[in-house]
């Protein structure tokens, strides 16, 4: 099964580039930039990776991101992630970046975008990994701050493929950003939003009705409302699910209780993603292996999850056809029958 997973062509649609900052790189960049960290070494930092909620993780994640200063830092971060994609046979990525985490520290927008984009372009050439880039607004900050970030991004809109909404969910409902998302629609930017990770099913409805999102990030709390589950099955509005993240942040107490395969069998367009892999115990391959170990996922289910990711991606139709054929061909070669 491990080699079947390793060679299965995968797409990642929910990945925070700041969440790929491995402790070793964090310390190397801290030294390079003269940034002080509150942990003496890598080992003690790793012991801090015990989270009891989304907020307990975010506090550490924002602290870690403070070592990212130069364009080269953002390049190195993104390049390291792409090397993990090669190892896991991830062929297409749609990644988030959080400009406000950096501009609030005085790092220019162009430094952040330039470094990430340069790595993605070089990675496409070197490894053939296609990509899309999604700018996320931090929902714990105000609507006014989101509008200010959008104004900063406006000269660069042709370099962005969409917008997202992340950070502390509880108490920051999607509706808070309805006007920002409406303006982004006028600018031609498609939207996604984190909803139903820790927050209630109502936040998923809000992100559909008030933000008009194209995908829901997480969305696992949809199970609380059968009518919402039916809606998601009927519309095939995709959910980018992150199994290891959900267990590490206590959304589910153990992998055996995760609902992703149940949602898959109910006809939802669920996909598998790694979220913040440096903090949650693994990249795409590890998430797929966890589904097998914790939930007994079959090879057929793993293939269908990858086909869902093709459907949910923002690739052109020709690339969707090519990748669908590649995954179906892979399944057939391994004697997996897809229904
Ligand atoms: N930012 C980075 N990871 C996140 C997550 N899992 N939920 C919300 N915001 C995030
Ligand atoms: Zn996320």
UniProtKB/TrEMBL annotation:
GO biological process, alphabetically ordered: adenine catabolic process; hypoxanthine salvage; nucleotide metabolic process
Domain (Adenosine deaminase): residue spans on this chain: 9-327
Catalytic residues in the record: 197
Protein purpose: Catalyzes the hydrolytic deamination of adenine to hypoxanthine. Plays an important role in the purine salvage pathway and in nitrogen catabolism.
Binding, Zn(2+): 14, 16, 194, 275
Cofactor: Zn(2+)
Keywords of the record: Hydrolase, Metal-binding, Nucleotide metabolism, Zinc
Reactions listed under catalytic activity: adenine + H2O + H(+) = hypoxanthine + NH4(+)
One GO cellular component term: cytosol
Naturally occurring in which organism (per UniProt): Aeromonas taiwanensis
Residues of the site described as Important for catalytic activity: 218
Protein name according to UniProt: Adenine deaminase
EC number annotated for this UniProt entry: 3.5.4.2
Top-level enzyme category: hydrolase
UniProt family annotation: Belongs to the metallo-dependent hydrolases superfamily. Adenosine and AMP deaminases family. Adenine deaminase type 2 subfamily.
Residue numbers binding substrate: 276
Keyword Zinc: yes
Cofactor comment: Binds 1 zinc ion per subunit.
Lineage: Bacteria, Pseudomonadati, Pseudomonadota, Gammaproteobacteria, Aeromonadales
GO molecular function, one term: adenine deaminase activity
């Amino acid at each position: 099964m491990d080699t079947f997973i390793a060679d299965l062509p995968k797409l990642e649609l929910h990945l925070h580039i700041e969440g790929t900052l491995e402790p070793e790189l964090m310390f190397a960049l801290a030294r390079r930039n003269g940034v002080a960290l509150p942990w003496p070494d890598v080992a003690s930092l790793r012991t801090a990776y015990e989270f009891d909620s989304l907020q307990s993780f975010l506090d550490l994640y924002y602290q870690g991101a403070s070592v990212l200063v130069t364009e080269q830092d953002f390049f190195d971060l993104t390049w390291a992630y792409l090397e993990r994609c090669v190892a896991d046979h991830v062929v297409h990525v749609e990644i988030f970046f959080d400009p406000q985490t950096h501009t609030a520290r005085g790092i220019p927008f162009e430094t952040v975008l330039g470094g990430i984009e340069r790595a993605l372009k070089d990675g496409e050439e070197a490894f053939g990994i296609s990509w899309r880039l999604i700018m996320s607004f931090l929902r714990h900050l105000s609507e006014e701050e989101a509008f200010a970030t959008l104004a900063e991004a406006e000269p660069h809109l042709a370099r962005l493929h969409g917008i997202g909404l992340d950070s502390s969910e509880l108490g920051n409902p999607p509706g808070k950003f309805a006007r920002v998302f409406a303006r982004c629609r006028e600018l031609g930017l498609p939207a996604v939003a984190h909803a139903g990770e820790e927050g209630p099913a109502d936040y998923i409805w809000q992100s559909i009705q008030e933000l008009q999102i194209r995908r829901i990030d997480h969305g696992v709390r949809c199970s609380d409302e059968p009518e919402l589950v039916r809606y998601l099955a009927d519309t095939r509005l995709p959910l980018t699910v992150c199994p290891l993240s959900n267990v590490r942040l206590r959304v589910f107490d153990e992998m055996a209780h995760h609902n992703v395969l149940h949602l898959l069998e109910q006809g939802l367009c669920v996909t598998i993603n790694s979220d913040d892999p440096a903090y949650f115990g693994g990249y795409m391959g590890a998430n797929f292996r966890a589904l097998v170990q914790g939930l007994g996922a079959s090879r057929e289910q793993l293939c269908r999850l990858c086909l869902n990711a093709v459907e949910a991606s923002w690739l052109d139709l020709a690339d969707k056809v090519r990748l669908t054929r590649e995954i179906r061909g892979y399944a057939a070669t391994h004697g997996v029958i897809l229904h």
